Amino acid sequence: MTVLQGGVPAFGIMGAMAEEIRLIRDDLDDPRPVPGPIDVTFGWLDGIPVLLARSGIGKVNATLSAAAMAAAGAASIVFTGVAGAVARGLDIGDMVIGDRFIQHDADGTAFGDPIGQVPGEPECWLPDAELTGRVLDAGRRVDPGGRRVVTGTIASGDQFIADPGKVAWLRDRFDASAVEMEGAALAQAASHLRVPFAVARILSDSADGQAASDFPAFLARAAELDRRLAHELVAGLHESPDRRLTP
User: Fold this and answer.
1) pTM for the whole thing?
2) Residues catalogued as catalytic
3) CA distance linking residue 224 with residue 215, whole number of Å
4) Relative to the CA of 29, which of 111, 115, 130, 159 has its CA 20 to 30 Å away?
């Protein structure tokens, strides 16, 4: 995959499922697929060049999509979609903006590493502070229902968590606020690729079997919040002389 013609930098938005990014794709002007094996679309959102990717579910898919977006010219990447609540006090519909990322299914204890640390990698990954601040502000502006919008640790793994005991372990071991299957893999890949990243997750369930009573309807509402978040994030962006997209 090659950089977009003319070296145009683009704001990257990624979601795991088609439903999570469908409304954003509908809003793109002049959308066109980026050649390659990953589902990436280039278009213009409110006059800003955007790369929009459907990564698929899981850590490997998130890693592949991050690499594809970086190769296509993503100046930064924001991952959005749904997740399970872990921290006490969070409820369905709340939003967690990741300020720390761990892979809860990584086990390098045989090498003396703590649970959650990929051997040879840092114990956790931190997002770009400026981009995360913008995502946090945007999340607070788009939530019309008064739900909580907080920062916290996001734990990722190739497991669908629906066990109260595992939720308690994630909370006690990692001080996690939310659990999902892609964010920490994006964090690892984007850190190596030197692409600023951030992750915003809307909580669809409590990760212990207690989910939104009508998940398809909830997913539709979450997709609308994702769309509003995307518009808020590109608002005010412009291309700097060194061809970066900056507020």
Assistant:
1) 0.90
2) 20, 205
3) 14
4) 130
